[in-house]
Design goal:
By secondary structure, the protein is an alpha+beta fold. Helix content is 40%, strand content 19%. It is built from three helices and three strands; from the N terminus they run H-E-E-E-H-H.
Length: 99
């Protein structure tokens, strides 16, 4: 068994349970669980954006503190109806790296 398999399973189960309790939500922001992305260790200010695409199907992305702040503030940056949040996050992070 991979040393990180249990962390991934723990993260997945936590997300599954959360979305069962919040059926109208399409995303959640939560702390990183050590080992859930294998050997990749994000900065301590990072969070995990979990997007539920459909019941039982979710994506997880590491996001930095600035994106967390924008998502928590709401406004025009994030609208729950946006279907491709990963694209928005990726474009924002690319622009940030170029500046």
């Amino acid at each position: 068994m991979e040393p990180y398999a249990s962390a991934t399973e723990k993260a997945s189960e936590s997300d599954r349970e959360w979305f069962l309790l919040h059926p109208k939500d399409t995303y959640r922001i939560r702390p990183y669980i050590a080992g859930e992305f294998g050997r990749e260790v994000p900065p301590t200010t990072s969070r995990v954006l979990v997007e539920q695409i459909q019941t039982g199907m979710r994506t997880r992305s590491i996001i930095d503190a600035e994106i967390v702040q924008l998502l928590e503030m709401g406004g025009i940056f994030f609208d729950p109806r946006v279907e491709n949040i990963k694209s928005i996050v990726a474009n924002y992070q690319k622009k940030k790296m170029l500046n």
